[in-house]
Amino acid sequence: MAVIWEPELDAEASKWRAAADGLSREHCAPLAEELDREQRYPWETIPHLVDSGLAGLFLPQEYGGQGASLTATVSVVERIAEDCASTAAILCAYQLGAFPLLLAGTPEQKDVYLRAMAQGTATSFALSERTAGSDPAAMAATGVEEGDGWRLRGEKFWIGNGGASRYYVAFVKTDPEAGGRGITAFMVDKEAEGVSVDHLSDKMGIRGTQTSNLRLDTLVPQSAQVGESGRALRLALKTLNVGRIMVSAQSLGLAIGAFREAAARAVSRQTFGKAIIDNQGIAFPLADVATQITAARLLLYRAAEAYDRGEDVQVIGAQAKLFCSEVAHKAADVAMQVWAGDGYCKPSKVERLYRDQRILEIYEGTSEIQRLVLGRAIRSEVEVKG
Length: 386
Hints:
- This protein has about 375 residues and is α+β, with helices and mostly antiparallel strands.
- It folds into three domains: about 10-120, Butyryl-Coa Dehydrogenase, subunit A, domain 1 (Orthogonal Bundle); about 125-230, Butyryl-CoA Dehydrogenase, subunit A, domain 2; about 235-385, Butyryl-CoA Dehydrogenase, subunit A, domain 3.
- It contains ten helices and ten strands.
């Protein structure tokens, strides 16, 4: 039996996992260090993601996607994250942009935007603002009816894949007096008049992604509205429930990559005439990480399977995101300690993983937000049971 538990994937998921393994070895792993060093988007990898079907893996077949399960999708993200967290983050951002349309888009919107996504033209999820991250109801961007459409004004920030996307699902306040119940979502085209991406964040990690600002003073037609008026915050939260499972997969893949780097180093590195893994000070942290990765993997795949069965994943998604991201933190930290000075200096995969990991405890809801979600769930369960 392997030290880290291996999920028993069905034929579909196994096929896509194998495709991801081949693509990652050939295209993602060799580019990872260069993308990080140059903070460069992997444009040359996108055609391979499209041709392999991985770009549209979770999209329905009628829109050019593969119609794969979430279990298959997380197995792909996990595998790619082991080699390149940036490319895995791009796949996660694809999903995040697609889900509002999958959940609430019109047939016409799905046909245009989901079909474009399956061919590599990305849509980004534009919810956060500079002063409205964990509290999206505090957003300042507005939508006001004008003529036959809506005038959208304001800025959206921290947009994953934002600089590389053509389209955006932008969340704005259409009824400022209603707070969280006055938010509506609209499709926005980056090439439309009054739309601009005017900032790309200089990030600590996942530097192969483009995280952007989106500035809006644009008129969109009524047909651009996604879902019901004033109900978009609920739509965003439903999207994030799934997004958190995807980030859990990214976290787990990074944790496995860090563990394997640490384990290989611990076996090959000699001090005082023996491999350093023969010292309890090295072996015990690695044993802990292997156990934690196994537990995280069990939780991740249980969450994905729950979604595939149509279950509510708010609680288990929060648990998976919280636990997997913090296990990734532990794995990256142990790997850095095992590699010591060699791991601390560039170019080192361990050094890159150490930086890439940190965002996993922040985006798609911070660890504190996950604990808040779970605390409310605990209270609700106790009150219901009396």
